[in-house]
Amino acid sequence: MADSTSPQVVIVGAGPAGLALAVALSQQGLRSTVLEQQPVEALADPPEDGRDIALTHRARRVLEQLGIWARLPADEVAPLCQAQVRDGVSPLVLPFSAQREGHEALGWLVPNHRIREAAFAAARQAPGVELLGDTTVTALERSAAEAAVRGAGGLRRAAPLVVAADSRFSAVRRMAGIGAQMLDFGRTAIVCRLQHEADHEGIAHECFRYENTLAILPMAGRQCSAVVTLPSDRAAQWLALPDAEFAARVQEQFGQRLGAMTVAAPRHSYPLVGVYAHRFVAPRFALVGDAAVGMHPVTAHGYNFGLYGVEVLARELARAHRLGHDVGAVAPLQAYEREHRRTTWPIYVGTNALVRLFTDDRAPARLLRGAVLRVARQLPPLQAAIARQLTGGARR
Ligand SMILES: Cc1cc2nc3c(=O)[nH]c(=O)nc-3n(C[C@H](O)[C@H](O)[C@H](O)COP(=O)(O)OP(=O)(O)OC[C@H]3O[C@@H](n4cnc5c(N)ncnc54)[C@H](O)[C@@H]3O)c2cc1C
Q1: Is this model's pTM higher than 0.90 or not?
Q2: Hey, where are the domains in the chain?
Q3: Architecture of domain 78-106+185-271 in this structure
Q4: Given CB 3.0 to 4.6 Å as the disulfide criterion, which of 114, 135, 225, 323 pairs with 217?
Q5: From CA 118, how far away is CA 73, in angstroms rounded?
Q6: How far apart are CA 63 and CA 145, in angstroms?
């Protein structure tokens, strides 16, 4: 029997998306319980995971509204002023500049563990949020009146709505009978923070080389995050390299543009799989974050999409709540699904097409890659449109 302390929403997964949703619901006066398999101590002090997250202007605005942005250590937030794209051995560069579009930054880069830490701190202090660690959800039950999840030790939590935010490989999505389109790129991203001699000037570089892809992302100070993406069968070899040799390879592939490089943190690796859920909602059930849309990181949209989804779902649930309607009813969930699909699907498809083309080293693809870059260079409106997509037209 529900009472005034029962959750109105149960969220599975205290990743950055699930925690952001709990805070957003709290701000709308909705109670939630977040269930997470990791211990609470690990959520409060998450280890460095090598991911540096590029956030758009809209994502920053959502984080500001949630009180998460203010909790990020200011000296670890790095503005992204320019991006440069290169192909193969061509000297041609496709530039995207914040200043040319009248902005201070295209976006900001923040270490993922700092986002997780700040999201956890905000959720812990948010009224009406219950956080349970060491709790792996193993079953989902739904009836006309409620949805419930079960975990080890007889734990059961019921609410009008269950939201799964349990990663791109979401087990709870499967428990809800929702399938997903999965695209295994057969590639692995190796991420590593490097120290370097020269100033990076806030410029991110995406180098689509022939044997691997190298991204250099500007971090605070004279540090960058190097992302080496290569066929998965070669990842073990790169991971086993001594630090000095790894740094030397990145330095050499980057053409010494930032001078001497040294490894500043351990390497981490992520197999790359794009995921798009067939549906984002079902009766008394919704997906957010990577559980709904898991992006290839090359266009840096994964968590941005997670935040956009949180914003829209919280808005729709708040509207239903204000009107005294059932928050697990179909109407608010479908409104969320429609808007989130409209936002994410074109970029999901476009990103996958871009990855396929720029990781294809066969001769015709090489020609096409060069042609695409040359045409894009001749189309300043296209560059402006991409910059606008990151900044949302906002002035900052
Ligand atoms: C190399 C790399 C670079 C990236 N760069 C960017 C970028 O520049 N910009 C960007 O926007 N995004 C980027 N991303 C994507 C971003 O990291 C993800 O979109 C984001 O972390 C997803 O958050 P989430 O909360 O949905 O999922 P997760 O972070 O995967 O969290 C899921 C949580 O659910 C918990 N869980 C799972 N199963 C259960 C269960 N059964 N019961 C209880 N708890 C469970 C897990 O323990 C975890 O805490 C990048 C990703 C990678 C790999």
Answers
A1: yes
A2: 9-74+111-182+273-356, 78-106+185-271
A3: 2-Layer Sandwich (3.30)
A4: 225
A5: 9
A6: 33
